[in-house]
Amino acid sequence: MPEVNSVSDKKPLGNLLSLAARLLKRDWHGGELRLLSLALVMAVTSVTGIALFTDRLERALLLESANMLAADRIVSGRGVLPAEVLEEGKARGLRTAETLSFTSMAFSESGNLLVAAKAVTDNYPLRGDVIIADAPFIRGTPIPSGPPPGEVWLESRALPALGIEVGDTVSVGEAELNVSKIIVTEPDRTGGGLVDNAGPRLMLHMDDVETTNVVQLGSRISYRYLFAHDDLELLDEFEGWFRAQEEWRGRYYIRDIRDESEEVSEALERAESFLLLGSLFAVLLAGVAIALTAKRYSERHYDYVAILKTLGCTSAQISLIYFAIQSMLGVIAVLVGCVLGYLVHQGVFLLLQSVLIFTLPPAGFQPYVIGSLTAFVCLFAFALPPLLALRETPPLRVLRKDITQQKISANVPYLFGILGTVFLIYWYSEDLFLSSVLISAVAVIALFLSIVSYLFLRSSGSAGMKAGSAWLLAMTAARRRRKQNVLQVMVFSVTIMSLLILTLVRTDLIEEWQAQLPENTPNHFMMNITQGQIEGIQNFFADNGVESNPFYSLTSARVTRINGDLPNPREDDEDSLGGGTLTENARRDGAELNELGGLNVSPQSDAPPVLSGREASTGGRRVRGQLSRRQVTWAEELPDDNLVTAGTWWGMEPLPGYVSIEEEYADWLDLELGDRIEFEVNRQIVAAEVSSFRSVRWDNMQPNFFVIFSPGTIDHLGATFLSTALMEREQKILLNDLIRLFPTVVIIEIDALIEQIQTIIAQVTSAIELISILVLICGALVLLSCVNASLDERFRENAILRTLGAGKKLILTSLLIEFASIGIVAGLIATIGAEVTLYYLQEQVFQQEFSPHYWVWAAGPLLGMLIIGGLGINSTRRVVHTSPLAVLRSAI
Amino acid sequence: MIETRNLVKAVNTSEGRLIILNGVSLLIESGEAVAIVGASGSGKSTLLGLMAGLDGVTSGDVLLDGHNLTQMDEEQRAILRGQLVGFVFQSFQLLPSLTALENVMLPIELKGDPEPNKKANQLLERVGLEERWHHYPNQLSGGEQQRVAIARAFATEARILFADEPTGNLDTATGAKVVDLLFDLNQEYSTTLVLVSHDERLAGRCGRIVKLVAGEIMSDERNVEVVSA
Questions:
Q1: CA–CA dist A222, A197 (Å, integer)
Q2: Among A698, A729, A749, which residue terminates a domain?
Q3: Rounded to whole angstroms, how far apart are CA atoms A50 and A506?
Q4: Per the domain annotation, does A438 fall within a domain?
Q5: Which residues of chain B lie closer than 8 angstroms to A314, CB-CB?
Q6: B-chain residues within 8 Å CB-CB of A303?
Q7: If you ran DSSP here, which 8-state letter would residue A39 be given?
Q8: Do A286 and A421 belong together in one domain?
Q9: Do A763 and A739 share a domain, yes or no?
Q10: Residues A155 and A225 in one domain
Q11: Which of A105, A195, A633, A793 is deepest in the core (most CB within 10 A)?
């Protein structure tokens, strides 16, 4: 008798792979793999599309942002910058340039004007272009350099004010310079401070600065070194080197666009978070669709495997065949998905062409790698486990249909799916916190969902017994498939929940952005306004059709005592209360100027410039060991975008001696309502009682204050006023008249900045819309897969019912009731889940305030009913239209 | 060739332990055609499954061409099936996504034999389906599907053929033609045939009839008519 080990396996690998290819081809043609492939392709398409989109958009926005700085990094500081910074940058291979900004008077034969002068070296700008024109008030052309020595470029509105034309000369200090071009704009104009915004721009070459003789010890100069390189790592290393120089800390600053503009940076970060969330949901949903379709596919392959095993296939060979099928499918899905992803992102950029104001750099290779890896992670986590479990199918199934896998736990595939999901979420986000929030939310909700849906389905049976025949059929069917339906309700709920979350986050984000910079956002700040000038300015605006805004008194104050004791603030830096708004430079430069001495710009220049945002009001002189001075105001009414969070705002007849403090500042100082604070205001001590704390919207580009006194508290101590105005492009010429009429007023122009931010927000909004659509498609795919998963069983059941005499109408009605009921429950549970998750996401990830979305409570269940009911009926219509005999025959 | 020794198969059900086969001992010589008959639930399909190595025994031994299946795991039994055994089932068990030709080629390819296409074509011609080679199972009638299944069963020149109710899904006329084909090929290839059926006329085509009742061999008789023929 031959030994057992003489039984050897000689099946050639090539034959098995050829069989796998044939099965794949036939299953594809037969529609078996259609949904699975579609889910896989959707996963790759959405991830590749989103990755390509974000990659290119981020590159473009970074490039555009760098243009706002005219460099990738800038170093600025109080006084002349150390030459070794420039040397180090050059030694590291960075491109460098220098700028020097100062305010000065420009003289012509017929007039004079305060100008914001900027001297630049030959390499300026390192990023972006200077836009120049041959005549004032016309469109310009870009040029990647500043003026040559001996020439100046002037902003359009300076020419009528000086009574000159292009080709004439102007005097700056002791230098006579030829006005050769009109400067329309320069890349880093928006990021400048007071010295860059105190008047129309006059740009000259760095070599001419010495001839002007205006830069002397004690002059107010803003020095900047500019650095650029395409290699981000080199830039980061240089920044690291700079930050390591302890002796420069607090004197010199290195910044990039994210430090420079809180508004842009926040918009970008939130958009990135949203895109990340969107792609996570897309992959999660596609993963669920893959898992469901793979499970169905594997169930339909039990018979295949049993037959193959009777013909001599071993379990290892079965695994090899299905692994090969999956891998081939994966490769095809990757190829198709990458192409579709590319087309999707191209399509979107085509749509966005009108709002894209810059050229898009080509995408890197990484998005394709991300998309491909996603496909295989999805396959191995979601699809492969149920397919590999096929190896356990007993060959006896050829004789007995009721036998399925016995050895492998039915839950193992889910375990792989969960692990795969966790891996993908962490891999994409690289953010442990976001990953934890999402994973815990999904886990808690899944548990909650399973309990609720189980209870519902249990009760549905008894309810069904009391109802009519269609209801009876529907409810008993729901109860009979309780376990399967719990899973179905969970999948539906998670899908609807994901879509609701994404829609709501998207809506809230866009609404908040629109609210942040509405159409009528003021784009000019006026400071150093005296009490006597207010009426004149109001009249000037009224005469010229410019809407006037409130005037805020402005003076600087410092907290000296709290309840009689010296202030004892928290350990963290006072500056940490401020972020990095685009206007920070203005504040910082203004503060620097004030430290260096008197300012020619304004007779009341003691007050540092205040623009908007939190830094606007943090500007003040800092004395070692004391708290910084803050820009403070008094007001009768609570300013817009301020919200009293504790205490009360003074009433209609306010009493002097009260103060309202911004809540973060109050927290930093450990203040409580009723505390008595002493302030030093203009060398006098003023005491006031804390009557309220306020939250302030710092990013609204409006004047904002940490400290607001009640009327009558500091009014007598003398102050200048601050106001804002919205001036359209064609109204900018009015600035000349305004400055002529009110020469002491300093005007800061932030119109270009606001336009730039609005453009970026518009682009990001479009991106968000696209991602939402992609996720929607993935969601629909999951719903379809889920309905299809129960199709085989429904075919058999309904064939039996029809054989027993049930009509098509009865069966269709019962199916509709069953699916609609599941849809309502899923919609309701999804709404609860969405609101809970949104609370965490908005508070923790998007830094938004959460408010419940009442309409969703009605829309969720209704949508669930319509979508699930519709999809269910659409997919199962075949059930009643297929001949019962055909169904029963195929089931034999 | 095939030997079962005191074969027992029992399963656990909600109502307790159920014995399906109880001490079945049987010796089937090489080239024999044996029919296993009995009423529904008598254990005939279970016996076929155990003899073909499709399932594990509870106790006892099954020897197939000298190999003791009870000492083999499922993987080894699968390899042995691929080398020795062919099957014909009541529900045909063709792979629906493969054509008639591919279904016949399948065991040849799995075994690694050369020229699967040529062999499969010859067999299809032999069963009268040379014109239908490119058709999928759902495009063939029941009788045609069973003929494809028979061609597949002989594709690897298996030494033992197990047939489980091969005419169960066919009408009488078609069933008769299929049975003729099955027995003709069995004779041509000198295969050992184990046929399970409750159809006495079909069983009557075999040289030996084993009758099972409640999991035990009630009778084991030579079919004189066939033997003498």
A1: 12
A2: A749
A3: 16
A4: no
A5: 75, 78-79
A6: 93
A7: H
A8: yes
A9: no
A10: yes
A11: A195
Q: Which of A431-435, A541-545, A548-552 has the lowest mean pLDDT?
A: A431-435
B89 and A312 within 8 Å at the Cβ level: the answer is no
CB contact under 8 A, A313 and B76: no
B45 touches chain A (CB under 8 A): yes
A152 forms bridges with which residues in the sheet? Answer: A179, A204
Q: Name the residue among A761, A758, A742, A740 with its Cα closest to residue A750.
A: A758
Which residue's entry shows tokens 């409750």?
B198
Q: Based on the structure, what is the number of domains in chain A?
A: 4
Q: Contact B79/A19, CB-based, under 8 Å?
A: no
Domain holding B11, by residue range, is: 2-228
Q: CB-based contact (8 Å) between B49 and chain A? A: yes
Of the partner residues B94, B111, B169, the one whose CB lies closest to the CB of residue A312: B111
Give the pLDDT mean for A309-328.
Answer: 88
Judging contacts by C-beta atoms under 8 Å, the chain A residues touching residue B91 are 892
CB within 8 Å: B78 and A303: no
Asked if A352 is an interface residue toward chain B (Cβ–Cβ < 8 A), one would say no
Assigned domain for A1 exists: no
- A21 in the same domain as A77: no
Beta-strand ranges (E) seen in B14-145 are 16-28, 33-38, 59-64, 67-68, 85-88
Please enumerate in sequence order all residues whose Cβ is within 8 A of that of A524, keeping only pairs 6 or more positions apart, or say none: A724, A725, A726, A727, A735, A747, A748, A749, A750, A751
**Taking CA atoms, what residue in A is nearest to B52?**
A310
pLDDT band of residue B202 (cuts 50, 70, 90) is confident
Specify whether A726 is located in the same domain as A755. no
pLDDT in tens, A504-518: 777 777 777 666 667
The answer to the question of residue A618 being in a domain is: yes
d(CA A468, CA A445): 34
- Interface subset of A 683-742, CB within 8 angstroms of B: none
Q: Decide if A886 touches B, using CB distance below 8 A.
A: no
* B 100-119 → A contacts, CB under 8 A: 102, 106-107, 109-112
Residues of B in contact with A304 (CB under 8 A): 95
Question: A3: distance to nearest CA of chain B, Å?
Answer: 7
Q: What is the pLDDT of residue A411?
A: 58
Q: So what's the pLDDT on residue A204?
A: 94
Q: How far is B97 from chain A (nearest CA, A)?
A: 5
Provide the pLDDT confidence category of residue A383 given band limits of 50, 70 and 90: confident
- Measured between CA atoms, the residue of chain B closest to residue A311 is B82
- A265 neighbors A761 (Cβ within 8 angstroms): no
Q: For residue range A756-809, what is the model confidence (pLDDT) as tens digits?
A: 666 666 666 666 666 667 677 767 777 777 777 667 667 777 777 777 666 777
**Is A224 a residue whose pLDDT tops 80?**
yes
* CB pair distance less than 8 Å for A12 and B74: no
Residue A646 domain-assigned (yes or no): yes
| CB < 8 Å to A320, chain B | none
Nearest to A592 by CA among A84, A68, A103: A103
CA A889 to chain centre: 56
Residues A618 and A552 placed together within one structural domain of the fold: yes
Residues A709, A781 within the same domain: no
Specify the long-range contacts of residues A247-251, CB closer than 8 Å, at least 24 apart: A248/A77, A248/A82, A251/A77, A251/A78, A251/A79
Number of domains in chain B: 1
Whole-complex ipTM: 0.89
CB-CB neighbors (< 8 A) of B66 in chain A: 1-2
A389 CB neighbour count, 10 Å cutoff: 21
Q: Which domain holds residue A209?
A: 73-255
Task: Indicate the residue of A1, A314, A398 with minimum beta-carbon distance to B66.
Answer: A1
More confident site: B12 or A749: B12
In a shared domain, residues A539 and A674: yes
Where residue A3 falls among pLDDT bands split at 50, 70, 90? very low
Q: Give the CATH number of the domain where residue B143 resides.
A: 3.40.50.300
Last residue of a domain, one of A223, A255, A287: A255
Neighbours of A354 (CB within 10 A): 8
- Residues within 8 A of A (CB atoms), B 130-169 only: 152, 164, 169
